[in-house]
Amino acid sequence: MINLSGLTKRYGGTTVVHGLTLTIEPGLVTGFLGPNGAGKSTTMRMILGLDRPTAGTALVKGRRYEEFRHPLREIGALLDAKALHPGRSGRAHLLAMARSNGIPAARVEEVLATVGLSDAARKRAGVYSLGMGQRLGIAGALLGDPGVLMFDEPVNGLDPDGVRWVRELMRSLAAEGRTVFVSSHLMSEMELTADRLVVIGKGRLLADAPIADILAGG
Ligand code: ADP
Ligand code: ADP
């Protein structure tokens, strides 16, 4: 599970995340809905220890990300594909992540097969389409078999089959009892995947309820 407590981020004079307090529970897909610029990525980056909160805390299973010796075994995430090294192959990216997290190399082949990149993984990341980059990012998120997963706009750049595959993946990860936190700027996407919806606008929590209640206008 993920616990946010008074989580706040300011850049210069602008507060982009305002005191978010919420718990993201296991066994559910929790959708994180808000327009572009609402603060979704910044929140996820703070959970992953990639941005330092200005105030408040973000805990995964009761600990800060930095406290984990092998973080990929605890939390996997799909963030911005721009983090890839263009000259390195997809497989090399995953092997490096596996090595630094004590994950056997054979697991890399498993997750590449899961995301349908077994053949393409020898190509350098610089030639990947957006959809292939998304698939590689999802493979990275699954690599450590973590109990907590975060996906930032995961259907971006995928073809219709890929979109359906991602939706089913989210559902099955939650059905296995994992914590799944997934962002989107589209309510239509959230309706198809989320059990619960956390809505933010301009960095502030606007709603947090079961999706059925939100659809009923509650
Ligand atoms: P979302 O993921 O919901 O689209 P972001 O978290 O990416 O929103 O951005 C929230 C706000 O924070 C935006 O106004 C964005 O311009 C700003 N922002 C994000 N990163 C930085 C940064 N490194 N420096 C300054 N402003 C930033
Ligand atoms: P490196 O340059 O060492 O390969 P990255 O720039 O890829 O590291 O990642 C920066 C940080 O983000 C690291 O602490 C890494 O553990 C974390 N990270 C990268 N990818 C993921 C992921 N898929 N899931 C969780 N954490 C990740």
From TrEMBL:
<keyword id="KW-0547">Nucleotide-binding</keyword>
<protein>
    <submittedName>
        <fullName>ATP-binding cassette domain-containing protein</fullName>
    </submittedName>
</protein>
<keyword id="KW-0813">Transport</keyword>
<feature type="domain" description="ABC transporter">
    <location>
        <begin position="2"/>
        <end position="218"/>
    </location>
</feature>
<keyword id="KW-0067">ATP-binding</keyword>
<dbReference type="GO" id="GO:0005524">
    <property type="term" value="F:ATP binding"/>
</dbReference>
<comment type="similarity">
    <text>Belongs to the ABC transporter superfamily.</text>
</comment>
